Structures are given as structure tokens and as C-alpha cells.
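Record type: monomer structure entry
Structure origin: computed from sequence
Chain ID: A
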Amino acid sequence: MLLITAFFASVLTFIYIKLAKNVIRLRRESNISVGHGKSEPLEKSIRAHANFNEYVPLGLILMACLEINNFNTLIIILVGGLFLIGRFLHAQSFLKEEMDIDLRVKGMKCTFWSLRIMSGLNFFSIAMSFL
């Protein structure tokens, strides 16, 4: 069973819903059903939601691969936590009235480092399976 991946996927889903609701709210307020209609707040909200959608599936796939290959549970939890923190910080930077660039950068650094680590651990797991 993929209990660790299921946990992180579930928590990330709540962030996803918050970002989606933010897009919906801004669309209603701006009366814009498609695109961003040159509304900067809506454009930022759409990009925050899209960015989340671009990174989360890859992170969850890498995490699930580690879990399926019986990698150390604590390591999966730690790197999953780093990934979750990265996605949370990045989302928070967009949800503020004025975008917090420092928070956004920290979020992306955590996201990239967690993806790098999970990729490396998966390569290590593959290599070890041949020994």
C-alpha cells in the first residue's frame, strides 16, 4: 500500500482546492469565464493553480516509486515533507494581496530540491536492485 504517498496526495489536494477556489472567486468577481481578461490578480491566480498542477503529479509519482520499491520510510516522509513545504510556500506567495517573491523563491527551492532528491533516490534504488 502507498500510505505515505496517499497522505501527501491528500494534503496536497486541500492546497489544490484552495488555489482552484481562488481562481473561481476571482473569475466571478471579474465576470471572466475564460482566460484572465487582462486582470492581473486573476492571471496570477491562474498561474499559481497551473504551477501547482505542473509539479505535484511528478512529485507524487517519484514518491510512489520510492514507496513501491520499499525505500526507507523515514526518508520518504522527510523528502515528502520538503516537497509539501515547497508547494505550500509557493502557493502562499500567490495568495497574498502583494506577491511575496522571497516566499515564492523558497517554495521553488524546496520543490526543486525535493524533486532532485527523490529522483536521485529512485536512481539509487534502481541501481541497488541490480546488485
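Annotation 1: Residues 3-129 form a domain with the Four Helix Bundle (Hemerythrin (Met), subunit A) fold (CATH 1.20.120.550).
Annotation 2: DSSP finds four helices and no strands in the chain.
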